[in-house]
Write a structure and sequence with these properties.
The structure holds two protein chains of two kinds. Chain A is built from 18 helices and 13 strands. By secondary structure, chain A is α/β, with parallel strands linked by helices. Chain A has a domain at 328-488: Peroxisomal Thiolase, Chain A, domain 1. Residues 483-489 of chain A have low confidence and may be disordered. Helix content of chain A is 36%, strand content 16%. The radius of gyration of chain B is 12 Å and the shape is globular. Chain B starts with a helix and ends with a strand. A two-stranded parallel ribbon of chain B has the order 1-2. Chain B is α+β, with helices and mostly antiparallel strands. The model of chain B has no long low-confidence stretch (mean pLDDT 90). Classes of the chains: A alpha/beta, B alpha+beta. The A-B interface holds A 260, 342-345, 373, 375, 380, 383, 385, 388, 391-392, 426, 428, 431, 457, 459, 461-462, 467-469 and B 20, 22-29, 32, 44-46, 48-50.
């Protein structure tokens, strides 16, 4: 049976150390008594751009380094940067803050982002050297005088923007409405940061893969930000705003909300829309999460680790009708965490892994590569949260033991052979299995793997509407080569 | 390591504050276990630590 294919993927990181102060946790801590001291300590622990580029997990995220290579690299990874690492990759890039501030301005249609003229000019000039054609964005980057910038940055409700090395604000985000708590500067910055980083991922996807923007019919945004106003908080649709931003003139779109497992829900929906011939191609996009910048900064400061949560991540994945080449999403393999299944890990994994695999006749050991929550352990371990991917991999391996696919003493080997170390920034939905999609496709195309399986979880309970979590999963499979086809015929 | 009977004795009749974890054991699962030994959950919460 023919299924839709993953036609292209892109991954970007935007290094935004000066926005870390506006992450949820840092903003709360800085706002408390003694916050000035916290702010000073935070500022002193921020990384320069070069360190973020050379940081091994970041190089894995953008595809310049294979995730398995992390196993051979000495920890802590931040002390052992990759020499001569490139900010660009086949899949995307790591963008410096100067350029990102320009994109933030370009993403704003309501003049809530204001940049000082010299900064606007410098940002536009830097983007003029960018390998992507960003002329449309550059046209939107305008500036104001230093005096006006200072006045607006200190106005009630404004949020000043900074750049390393500049002691005064280089810009600001203005309040969007006098009485609407959903349009305060902080929330507008969150939403614009997602829009700008998501749009950058789409730009890379289109340009690097030679995709005609007019060929994309529909966009699904899987980000978690609540775009809306006092009457419809979370109303959306950031998907269409991103489609407009990058010139997808034939597209409409909608947002998929499912906490961190929204990307997998979105991919399943995209594949289903294509399979049903509703649309020829559907784009899944997710921008970065400002709120999660510096989420674990306290423990990083305590352990004398730099602030590693200093990047906004973005990804874009294009699902198209079967072209006979790309890896297929097995729509007969979709797993879902059902309401009636309960909350034990065994029940969840049965829904997400065992049942879907059995449905298509695979055992757990028939999968060469699993992708689960891919959070970078170097970020989570200092706070006591442990190695999340490793824990999830061990639970999958335990299920294989229960099923009799492997012996108990083979759990370690199962994890090593079919898993990879976590490398994703702790950017919520971004880390949920999908960072492995590009690497898995690369392995499938190179013949290093035949089958990969993706499972993601979402923390629905955080919204206090249910105590449940959620989960969704799917398999992708390598295209049989013509030789194999002939042999099997 | 206490055996099952010892755990039951330790928890029986106790009031319990439960903090579960999404990628570990969620609070409803802990709650279900505690109820089998006549402990009373008075607060139950699952958290996501990423």
């Amino acid at each position: 049976m023919s299924f839709p294919v993953i036609a292209a993927t892109s991954y970007v990181l935007c290094h935004t150390p000066q926005l870390v102060r506006y992450g949820s946790k840092p903003a709360r801590e800085i706002g408390k008594e003694g916050g000035d001291d916290v702010a000073a300590r935070l500022d002193a622990a921020l990384r320069p751009f070069e360190d973020a580029v050379g940081y091994p997990p970041n190089q894995v995220f953008i595809g310049n380094t294979a995730p398995g290579c992390l196993r051979g690299m000495e920890r802590p990874w931040w002390k052992h940067p990759i020499a001569a690492a490139s900010r660009f990759s086949e899949w995307g890039e790591i963008m410096p803050e100067l350029e990102f501030l320009g994109l933030l301005k370009a993403a704003d249609q309501f003049n809530v982002v204001q940049l000082r003229a010299d900064l606007a000019e410098a940002s536009s000039a830097a983007l003029g050297e960018h390998p992507l054609p960003l002329d449309l964005e550059r046209e939107r980057i305008t500036g104001i005088s230093p005096d006006e910038c200072q006045r607006l940055a200190t106005a009630p409700g404004s949020l000043p923007l900074f750049l390393a090395g500049d002691p005064v604000p280089v810009g600001c985000v203005l309040i969007g409405h006098d009485e609407d708590t959903n349009l305060v500067a902080h929330i507008l910055l969150e939403n614009l940061a997602t829009k700008a980083s998501g749009a950058l991922a789409v730009r890379h996807l289109i340009e690097r893969n030679g995709i005609d923007p007019a060929s994309i019919s529909y966009v699904l945004n899987c980000g978690e930000e609540a775009v809306g106003d006092r009457y419809q908080r979370g109303g959306g649709s950031l998907s269409k705003a991103i489609a407009e931003q990058v010139g997808l003139l034939n597209a409409s779109g909608s947002d998929t909300k499912a906490f961190c497992c929204a990307p997998v829900h979105s991919l399943v929906q995209a594949a289903a829309l294509v399979q049903a011939k509703v649309f020829e191609s559907v784009l899944v996009v997710g921008g970065g999460s400002l709120a999660k910048l510096g989420m674990k900064f306290r423990s990083h400061l305590d352990k004398e680790t730099p602030i590693l949560e200093d990047v906004l991540a973005g990804l874009a994945i294009l699902i198209s009708a079967d072209d006979g080449r790309g890896p297929q999403i097995r729509l007969d393999s979709i797993g879902r965490h059902r309401v009636g299944s309960g909350s034990s890990q065994q029940a969840i994994l049965q829904d997400l892994v065992r049942d879907p695999l059995r449905r298509i006749g695979w055992r757990l050991t028939d999968v060469d590569l699993y992708a689960t929550e891919m959070h970078n352990p170097e970020v989570t371990e200092p706070s006591g949260s442990g190695d999340v991917p490793d824990r999830n991999y061990r639970m999958i391996a335990s299920l294989a033991v229960i099923d009799g696919d492997i012996a108990r003493d083979q759990i370690g080997a199962f994890v090593e052979e079919r898993g990879v170390p976590g490398f994703s920034p702790t950017q919520g939905h971004i880390a949920a299995a999908v960072p492995m999609l590009g690497h898995a496709i690369r392995d499938l195309e190179a013949g290093r793997a035949q089958r990969a399986f993706f499972l993601a979880k979402g923390s629905l309970f955080l919204g206090k509407m249910t105590n449940m979590s959620d989960g969704m999963s799917f398999a992708i499979e390598r295209r049989p080569s013509k030789t194999t086809d002939a042999n099997n015929a | 390591m206490p055996n099952g009977k010892e755990v039951k004795k330790m928890l029986q009749g106790k009031k319990a504050i439960i903090i579960g974890e999404r990628d570990g054991v969620a609070s409803p699962a802990i709650e279900a276990c505690l109820k089998t030994v006549d402990a009373t959950p008075i607060y139950s919460l699952t958290q996501c630590y990423v």
